[in-house]
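Hi R.,

Here's the chain you asked about this morning:
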Amino acid sequence: MGGGGEVVVRVQQDVRVNPHEAWIKEEIPDVSDPGGELQYIVKADIPFNVYFFTDREQFEQYDAYIKGREPGETPPGNPEFSQTAVQPAGSDIYEASTDDGGARESLDESGPYFFAVDHSNYRMETRVDDYDDPLKAFVDLTVIRNKLPF
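And here is the predicted structure, written out as tokens:
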């Protein structure tokens, strides 16, 4: 992992997410041919979830939930990359990342992809009340298309 490749998505920004909503990076281009990599780290001062969808239909179920509709199901996103933020020992910050603190990981599933920083009750993994504060998070997301060897 690591090394060369073409960066197809690069996000480094602070985001604000109201209760029962999500910050979503939609339509991330397919990097499955010849292969690609994903790396991210998201940090915030309150709990949150990250969902990474490699299936458009599953993302549409999630998107319906975020928009206040009742989806037929609540898919978990890609289990390799979707996760609930954790608080590292001795820290007051919650963090979700690819393995090894945000290292590049192989992304071979076909896209497009959808990345969500979630501040809702989706799948009841993190409880959010109407009166809760907005989530203020920093998102560092990179998707890379590998170069073909010569």
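One quick note: The mean pLDDT is 92.

Cheers,
M.
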